[in-house]
TrEMBL record:
Keyword entries, A-Z: Allosteric enzyme, ATP-binding, Cytoplasm, Glycolysis, Kinase, Magnesium, Metal-binding, Nucleotide-binding, Transferase
GO biological process: canonical glycolysis; fructose 1,6-bisphosphate metabolic process; fructose 6-phosphate metabolic process
Subunit structure: Homotetramer.
Active site: 127 (proton acceptor)
Ligand binding (ATP): 11, 72-73, 102-105
Family: Belongs to the phosphofructokinase type A (PFKA) family. ATP-dependent PFK group I subfamily. Prokaryotic clade 'B1' sub-subfamily.
Domain Phosphofructokinase, first and last residues per copy: 3-275
Gene: pfkA
Chain positions recorded as substrate binding sites: 125-127, 169-171, 222, 243
Gene3D superfamilies reported in the protein's UniProt record: 3.40.50.450, Phosphofructokinase domain
Lineage of origin: Bacteria, Bacillati, Bacillota, Bacilli, Bacillales
Protein name: ATP-dependent 6-phosphofructokinase
Metabolic or biological pathway, per its Swiss-Prot or TrEMBL entry: Carbohydrate degradation; glycolysis; D-glyceraldehyde 3-phosphate and glycerone phosphate from D-glucose: step 3/4
Subcellular location: Cytoplasm
Length: 317
């Protein structure tokens, strides 16, 4: 019988379990046995695996994190590490693989594809930084979590006429910050795609204060600023009270939203169907609510056009 392997890699994202569940269900339906590979590529190199039946995953669609665990493996980036992984696949007679993860995970998947393993990727990352797909699994849940946190901070900011800098995740992509602000979450936003300098942030804040808005949220993507320096700069320039909140890993956990569960279900089934059709070296995505699939090599080069969203933001803020 043909055997399918499945692993999650990189940062966990809510909805990964729903994707595992869907892939296992689809594989069993088509008569494939499934091996769950634990801790991503690290576990693949070490042969850390367990057999998965649908009963093992049936109740996990609503759980955050990943039941297969995950890792960021430096060893797998090296030729020697990948040879180990290939030996595990050969020993376990796994000839088809589903990789759920972000861009780094897809790079690893592409290498396995080039070594003759049949691989399909499923985008699982809260960052939404894969331009070939409108949404990656986990992003919607994270956005909802961020909005809930923002709402709480707004309550206290408005009670004290305070300004808060909120740092959100996203790695080098501003989508978590951008969509939070589009959903009505903040007054000033700075992302890698449209980065504001300290002086520009102060000038926008000053405009709002002059207009009578004394509680303001500044949403920034991680890795862009020294937050203590930014806070101090604003306080000294504008003589206002500023606080800083880094949302951190709160954004990555939690039960997946309905949107993420449905997206994961669709993508999990599609990944298995593509493998059965003989497709390899590609990742499933979604464009205009339709499932698509694209070669890993084309995915890496693609950049997102967020012009419409940023224009809308200019009107809304
Ligand atoms: O890619 C998901 C993500 O949460 C990013 O937003 C963040 O920059 C990174 O992972 C954090 O990585 P780690 O879990 O290795 O600290």
């Amino acid at each position: 019988m043909s055997r399918l392997g499945i692993l999650t890699s990189g940062g966990d994202a809510p909805g990964m379990n729903a994707a595992i569940r869907a892939a296992v269900k689809a594989a069993n339906h088509h008569g494939l046995d499934v091996t769950g590979i634990q801790r991503g590529y690290q576990g693949l190199m070490e042969g850390d695996v367990r057999q998965l039946q649908f009963a093992d995953v049936a109740d996990f669609a609503d759980k955050g994190g990943t039941i297969l665990k995950t890792s960021r493996s430096l060893e797998f980036m090296e030729e020697a590490g990948r040879s180990k992984a290939l030996r595990t696949l050969e020993r376990l007679e796994i000839n088809r693989l589903v990789v759920i993860g972000g861009e780094g995970s897809f790079k690893g998947a592409e290498k396995l594809h080039e070594s003759g393993i049949q691989v399909i990727g499923i985008p699982g990352t809260i960052d939404n930084d894969l331009a070939y797909t409108d949404y990656s699994i986990g992003f919607d849940t994270t956005l909802n979590t961020v909005l809930e946190c923002i709402g709480r901070i707004k309550d206290t900011d408005s009670s004290h006429d305070k300004t808060t800098i909120i740092e959100v995740m996203g790695r080098y992509c501003g989508d978590v910050a951008l969509y939070s602000a589009l959903a009505g979450g903040g007054e000033i936003i700075s992302t890698p795609e449209q980065k504001l300098g300290f002086a520009e942030i102060c000038s926008q804040l000053q405009e709002r204060i002059v207009a009578g808005k004394h509680d303001n949220l500044i949403i920034v993507t991680e890795r862009m600023y020294s937050l203590p320096e930014l806070q101090q700069y604003i306080e000294e320039e504008l003589h206002v009270s500023v606080r800083t909140t880094v949302l951190g890993f709160i954004q990555r956990g939690g039960n997946p939203s309905a949107f993420d569960r449905v997206l994961a279900g669709r993508m999990g089934v599609k990944a298995v169907e593509l493998l059965l059709e003989g497709v390899s070296g590609q990742a499933v995505g979604m464009k205009e609510n339709k499932l698509i699939h694209k070669a890993f090599r084309d995915i890496h080069a693609e950049t997102a056009d967020k012009q419409e969203q940023y224009q809308l933001l200019a009107t809304l803020l």
